[in-house]
Amino acid sequence: MDAFRGRSQTTKGIWIAKAVGIEPFTVVMDLEGTDGRERGEDDTTFEKQSALFALAVADIVLINIWCHDIGREQASNKPLLRTVFEVMMRLFSPRKTTLLFVIRDKTKTPIEYLEPILREDIHKIWEKVPKPMAYKDTPLSEFFNMEITALPSYEEKEEQFIEQVVAQLRQRFFHSISPGGLAGDRRGVIPASGFSFSAEHIWKVIRENKDLDLPAHKVHIYVQREKSTLDFSLFSEPCYFFQIMVATVRCEEIANEKFNWLASDKDWLAIEEAVQTGAVSGFGKSISSILKNYLSEYDMESTYFEEDVKNAKRQYLESKALQLVHPAYVAMLGHLRSGAFQGFKTRLEQLLGRGEPFAASVNTFYYLLYNVFSILDVAIEQANWDASKVREKLNRDIEAHVSHVRSERLSQIVAEFEERLSAALIDPLEALFEGGGANTWASIRNLVKRESNKASSSFLRAIAGYELDQSTVDKMVNNLKEYARKLVRNKSKEEAGKVLIRMKDRFAIVFNHDKDSMPRVWTGKEDIRAITKEARCESLKLLATLAAVWLEEKMDNIENALYCGLMENTEIMPSLAMDAVVSGSPLASSTWEEVPPENTLITPVQCKALWKQFKAETEYTVTQAISAQEAYKRSNNWLPPPWAILAMIVLGFNEFMLLLRNPLYLLVIFVTFLLGKAVAGLIALSTRFLPTVMNILSRLAAEGHEQAPNTKHRDSQSFKNQQPQSDSESSSVPDSSVSTETSSEYSSPQVRHRRSAHTQEFQIS
Predict the structure, then answer these.
(1) Is residue 64 in a domain?
(2) Which family does the similarity line name (predicted)?
(3) Of 16, 426, 468, 545, which has fewest CB within 10 angstroms of its CB?
């Protein structure tokens, strides 16, 4: 048999051949299988005949049994062995035969457990077989030797299978008739020359025996019953046996007939079709009525048959009928479950939409639905089917839906409160980081604690209607608080990325404004060095604030380390200088002391690099302030030095006294002073007025040069008449006029003109 082409019968009939390579001379006989589908369920005559022939002829009979069939009634060929044993005891004289049971496809069950079961089954069959009086108490071992072996699966363990078959099982057939062999104690040996005749005679006797043709008996009895005549000449058993057989055949025919009518019943077909699309009202009553009718018809037609057989076949009919309607029953239950589930979903959505508490809505409608849901309308009277699985499935569906809706709504609530926390924390956090100082993280901790507690209280009120267990509530509240802490960490990382900009802004504010937040005027009295250090200290505080996340109340030593490592002089912060105990460079590390890596925003090495860049970028501001201070000093230093003033007083005392004695000198000096002031004003005015006049004259000169080429076509007289005018116009332009041939602008402190615009103005004028 080719396994890749399917499974079918390979041995048909009885095949006999010489065994190759086995000593002494051995004949092998291969029989047709006893459970093939080719002969069907009822045509078992040849199977029994061939089995009896093998037991009557062979010295060793190999019986192939599937490992999983041990302990089964039909699959292990118990009925066949029982029939063969009965006929053998009547037809043939007992002889010693070896029964070698070969268990194929052995499982993990040890053969030590399988062998006793198989031996016990064979002994029970032997004890129940009717025997002649001479052999009534004869044990099985008197006529049969039982040997049991097991083989692994050929498909799963091919190499092991071949090895055992060839090396072990085949080896047992060598010299099998020798003392101690498989057939060493055989009896009734027939010479080889008479084997052919003996086998032919045995087969003839077997073929003529009617006990091996039970299906033929049933048909014969049925036919004779219709003719109201009974022929008992074929039977050796009591008449009751034949009554059983007749009842079996006839009741089975009636049952099959009623089942076929049921399968084609119009009412049943209509219900079967309708239940595929939806629930059918009165399903259980309708099906019960149809089944009851056909079972009643069976009872009427089988009234006069043997009671046990009639009842057995009635159960057979009822079982087949219930198998027929069971798919429709399952479909009907499915429709009921689906309808109840959809109703629950719709009702729950309506209740929640009106603002009802979640748990109360679920519990009220759930118990109502579970109690209302009934399968009484689906129950079939003849069936005792348990519909609890449908209830369980409905319960699982409802619980899954409730869990989904609960999770979805809780997720919405959590998202809403997380959004509230974000709105309540982001702006204050940004303001606190912008004004970072020694108490920044303490303020942040207070802010987070206050907002988290406020959000937690509101959150507990929001989820109160869900009736969650305390552990779940605690977990959700903790998650909400952890979200607030996560916001702080994320905002800290964001601000740490802008720390250099923040430091420069802080430096500019402190450096350029006094304590009253008024802009500084560098008059020369300010101590720029002290102001610079103060501004840098404030910037350093901001850097220390953003160097790490401090959500736990621990000692923050980062500011001390930064002051000791970055500030050249700690006189401004003497307390910090006294508290800082540093061995080596405090910033020569990639981690902060007592700060976990996940809370580190800026490492000490990065702080050092940022500080270096910060100082470089703020150096210009300090330089500008120093320059402004020096410029202010120069602009206000118009008095001579004190020693010069003293010399002038001493040396000019005579002249001063002369002026006092003659007031006319004072008047002349005063008038001269006024004229000097007036001249200075006129000069300042002329510096603004003169460029404007020059621009106008330059444009007039340029316009005159442009009009000159246009007059060349006129006659000479006309040119002469106009020459004085042109000369006068030309002479009116000073030598210092500026050319305007380019498109550059001419400007004064009060007026800005373009050449093209003024050219157009002059043309219009």
Answers:
(1) yes
(2) Belongs to the TRAFAC class dynamin-like GTPase superfamily. GB1/RHD3 GTPase family.
(3) 16
3-class DSSP state of 472: helix
- The answer to whether residues 602 and 546 touch, using CB atoms and an 8 Å cutoff, is yes
Cβ atoms of 298 and 258 within 8 Å: the answer is yes
pTM of the shown model:
0.45
Q: What is the mean pLDDT of residues 4-20?
A: 72
d(CA 506, CA 546): 14
Determine contact, residues 507/483, Cβ cutoff 8 Å: no
pLDDT tier for residue 116 given thresholds of 50, 70 and 90: confident
Compute the distance between CA of residue 239 and CA of residue 250 in angstroms, rounded to an integer: 17
Picking from 581, 611, 634, the residue at the C-terminal end of a domain is 634
Please report the pLDDT score of residue 315 as a whole number. 92
Closest CA to 310 of 290, 293, 295: 295
Q: Report whether 487 contacts 422 (CB < 8 A).
A: yes
Cα 95 to its chain centre, rounded Å, is: 73
Of 448, 475, 497, the last residue of a domain is 497
46 with 194, same domain: the answer is: yes
Q: Is the pLDDT of residue 451 over 70?
A: yes
CA atoms of 533 and 552, how far apart (whole Å): 31
The alpha helices in 600-662, defined as continuous H runs, are: 604-635, 642-651, 653-661
Structural contact between residues 176 and 60, judged by C-beta atoms closer than 8 angstroms: yes
Average pLDDT over residues 142-150: 83
Residue 375 lies in a domain: no
CB neighbour list of residue 718: distance below 8 Å, 6 or more residues apart = 711
In a domain, 304, yes or no: yes
For residues 195 and 69, state if they share a domain. yes
**91 in Cβ contact with 132 (< 8 Å):** no
b/e per residue 233-261 (b: at least 16 CB within 10 A): eeeeeeeeebeebbbbbbbbebbeebbee
Closest-CA residue to 733 (of 757, 702, 691): 702
**Owner of token pair 């006092």:** 660
Which of helix, strand or coil describes residue 293? helix
User: Are 493 and 503 part of one and the same domain?
Assistant: no
SS (H, E, C) 117-169: HHHHHHHHHHHHCCCCHHHCCCCHHHCEEEEEEECCCCCCCHHHHHHHHHHHH
Establish if 640 belongs to a structural domain: no
Which strands form 97-104's sheet, in the order they lie side by side?
60-66, 97-104, 144-150
Strands 60-66 and 97-104: parallel
Omega prior to 24 cis, within 30 of 0? yes
Contacts by 350-359 with C-beta closer than 8 Å and gap 24+?
352/405, 352/409, 357/464, 357/465, 357/466, 358/405, 358/406, 358/409, 358/465, 358/466, 358/467, 359/465, 359/466, 359/467
**CB-facing half-sphere around the CA of 626: CA atoms within 13 A:** 9
Q: What is the pLDDT of residue 245?
A: 61
Tell me, yes or no, whether 674 and 759 share the same domain: yes
- Cα-Cα-Cα-Cα dihedral sign, residues 78, 80, 82, 88: negative
Q: State how far the Cα of 152 lies from the Cα of 108, in Å rounded to an integer.
A: 10
Residue with tokens 């043939």: 92
Q: How far is CA 49 from CA 46, 128, 241, 449, 641, in A?
A: 5, 20, 21, 95, 152
CA 238 to chain centre: 74
Distance, CA of 634 to chain centre: 77
- Per DSSP, 227 falls in state T
Q: What SS3 class is residue 103? A: strand
| Mean of pLDDT values over 166-179 | 79
Nearest to 35 by CA among 14, 5, 65, 71: 65
Average pLDDT over residues 5-11: 61
As separate numbers, helices (DSSP H) first and strands (DSSP E) second, the chain gives: 24, 7
**Owning domain of residue 446:** 414-497
Residue 70: DSSP 8-state:
T
**Which CATH number characterizes residue 146's domain?**
3.40.50.300
609 shares its domain with 464: no
Q: How far apart are CA 294 and CA 292, in angstroms?
A: 6
Residues 281 and 186 in one domain: no
| 107 shares its domain with 192 | yes
